Amino acid sequence: MAVPPFDVTALRRHPDVEAPNLQAWDATDRYLLDLAAERVAADPSLRAPGAVTVIGDRHGALSLGARLQLGAATVRSHQDGLLGERAIAANAARLGVDGIEQLPLGRALVDGARLVLLQLPRANAALDEQAALIAAGAASDVVVLAGGRVKHMSRTQTGVLSEHFRIVDATLARQKSRVLLASGPVPGVGRSYPERRVDAELGIEIIAHGAAFNGTGLDLGTRELLGQLHLLQRTEGRAVDLGCGTGVLAVELARRFPSLSVLATDQSLAAVDSATATVSAAGLRDRVRVVRDDGLSAQADDSAELVLLNPPFHIGAAVHTGLAERLFADASRVLVPGGELWTVWNSHLGYRGALERLVGPTEQLHRTPKFTVTRSLAR
Predict the structure, then answer these.
(1) Are strands 304-309 and 260-266 parallel, antiparallel or unpaired?
(2) Which part of the chain is the RlmG N-terminal domain (predicted)?
(3) Where is pLDDT greater, at 16 or 142?
(4) Cys-Cys crosslink for 121: which of 126, 182, 319, 321, Cβ 3.0 to 4.6 Å?
(5) What is the DSSP letter of 4?
(6) Which residues contact 203 (CB under 8 A, 6 or more apart)?
(7) Model confidence over 241-259: pLDDT tens digits?
(8) Contact assessment for residue 341 and residue 331, using Cβ atoms and an 8 Å cutoff
(9) How many helices (H) and strands (E) does the chain have?
């Protein structure tokens, strides 16, 4: 008997940012579940424990859908972001769904899997690392259904999958989504992760997993912020690299200002693993602590003298200021009175008003047509 489609509209994004223009699912989730349901109907053994793995599920549509629509006995699921992990758990608890095991990106996630549902990541390096892991650890008859919104897909994604699978086909578009079908795994090919590169200008080794923002490169906003650190007056006490990525800002703070104790924090598991490796390579594990956190939710009030922040301005594919403002508020709470928040942001976003409102008096330290660097004093 056919199982009705999972009602993805029952999902919430909480504790992730919620807004009228942000959904906990998209048409790609529905397309992936419908295609997977056809395969499970043809081969009911795909419902067996350990057969289904989900990668890149944002808020639970695929993980819960695999249990409820596909009838999978268990689901192993990986979501890089901590907010996504918590949203999946919250949705599962609210809807009474069990049998979902959330795991880091590693062999235990894919071992013996026969059907993998994957939301295509934005970075090809992330897809490369995921595809290599599946090819090496999943069952020999594994089928990967990798979906995305057509406007964000490119032929290079097909090329990445083709390095790790002998057969890669594409479906027709449906509701502006398309799915790539990969089978015939070819283990042991391609690049190894994490990748490593020495930045010639800074003289530090940057280490990055595929999903870490900007990989082993140094994004332009971070360079602009680093270029203003000579103006820093608070060079003792406790500093935070908020949204640390690969940990470059944390390493540079510790190297330039030996009297600072530095905390690096990010909600991305790939970022935390990358930053931990970057800090270790710099020989600074005794002075820089790296943690995974939703902003600064685990940090005490009035516990830092300095916070550095290069905030994201996208939530998924949408340009949205909600996450940045949440980080501003977190920094304000954690800073001691008179503590400093140094922020670099895309000039067109005009964050100064939000910084004044959420943190305190804000001055512009540097501005280019693309980036603005500001210093805000916590009230």
Answers:
(1) unpaired
(2) 9-182
(3) 142
(4) 126
(5) P
(6) none
(7) 999 999 999 999 999 999 9
(8) yes
(9) 11, 18
Token digits of residue 180: 């790539």
DSSP string, 314-351: EETTEE-SHHHHHHHHHHHHHEEEEEEEEEEEEGGG-T
Is CATH 3.40.30.10 the classification given to domain 8-185? no
- Nearby residues of 230 by Cβ (< 8 Å), 6 or more positions away: none
Banded pLDDT at 21 (limits 50, 70, 90): confident
* Torsion angles phi and psi, residue 347, rounded to 5: -55, -35
The pLDDT of residue 40 is above 60? yes
Residue 61: pLDDT over 90: yes
Place of tokens 């900007």: 214
The model's confidence at residue 134, banded by pLDDT at 50, 70 and 90, is very high
Residue 3 pLDDT more than 80? no
375 forms beta bridges with 342, 363
In this chain, the answer to whether the domains covering 8-185 and 195-377 adopt an identical fold is yes
Sequence spans of domains, the chain: 8-185, 195-377
H or E element in which residue 288 lies: strand 288-292
Give Dmax over CA atoms of the chain in angstroms.
Answer: 69
Residues with Cβ within 8 Å of 42's Cβ and at least 6 positions away in sequence, in order, are: none
| 195-377 classified as CATH 2.60.40.10 | no
Separation of CA 163 from chain center: 24
DSSP H helices, the chain, are: 27-42, 61-68, 82-95, 107-110, 124-137, 155-164, 220-226, 248-256, 269-281, 322-334, 352-358
pLDDT tens figures, 280-318: 999 999 999 999 999 999 999 999 999 999 987 644 444
Instruction: Report the mean per-residue pLDDT for the chain.
Output: 95
Q: Are 52 and 67 in contact (CB under 8 A)?
A: no
